[in-house]
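Sanity check record (used in CI):
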Amino acid sequence: MAKVQVGLVQMSCTSNKQENLDKAILKIREAAAKGAQIVCLQELFTSLYFCDVEDYDNFNLAEAIPGPSTDALQVIAKELGVVIIASLFEKRTAGLYHNTTAVLDADGTYLGKYRKMHIPDDPAFYEKFYFTPGDLGYKVFQTKFAKIGILICWDQWYPEASRITALMGAEIMFYPTAIGWATDQDEETNKDQYNAWQTIQRSHAVANGVPVVSVNRVGLEQDGAMKFWGGSFATNAQGKLLYLGSHDNEETKVVEIDLSESDFFRKHWPFLRDRRIDSYQPITKRFIDED
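Expected output for Carbon-nitrogen hydrolase:
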């Protein structure tokens, strides 16, 4: 299938887990009604972004994967005939938790999960308190409509992660994400931060010749201290913006992505062909010095 209809669901969340899940399902239905074949939800869409504090009670938000949320979404995926990309807080076993994305195929089949590899620990983003780094490696999933690669939020800053995912055969790379501005920050800094975030992800599309879809949450959280900046977007395999979401509003957008463009751009800009893989061994070092 050369062309795929991709749905991006950018939404705000509340402290009510069931309410957020129900809302996401309504928006999946909306995307499907607009023709979406693959629908991507934002990072940790069943809750507020709880990693702003280190609070043991927040572990109660976690669930098994497969589990209640994937069970509900499998029913919807099968009913609507859509692939669903669902980012969830995974409880693997007692005391072991991951930031994980599940992939459900268009017939409702649970295809598997990707566990976030890169875990931040910044002010208001204390993810190392909650999440164990992923141990499944980088993943691609053969869905009905395309072979898709999944990375999650902080992964988006790492060209190594996108490169490996592309080399595994991903035809589209998806990034469920949750990032925003401190509301006491000046507008110039806000603009610079958003541009850096968008630019690094568009560069993954260019370097790998693979379309990129990034879905971010929106709205004020953390008692008004954080404005999640929305700005979800989709690019083609040359990094051209096909859609750019607002910074303020919930949006459900369906974008057509032409998978055949990857072959065209890779032939005309043959970055993959020209890679000097024999020279890359030093990249496995933390820093290249004498120690």
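The CA atoms of residues 7 and 31 lie 6 Å apart. If this sentence no longer matches the regenerated tokens, the check is flagged for review.
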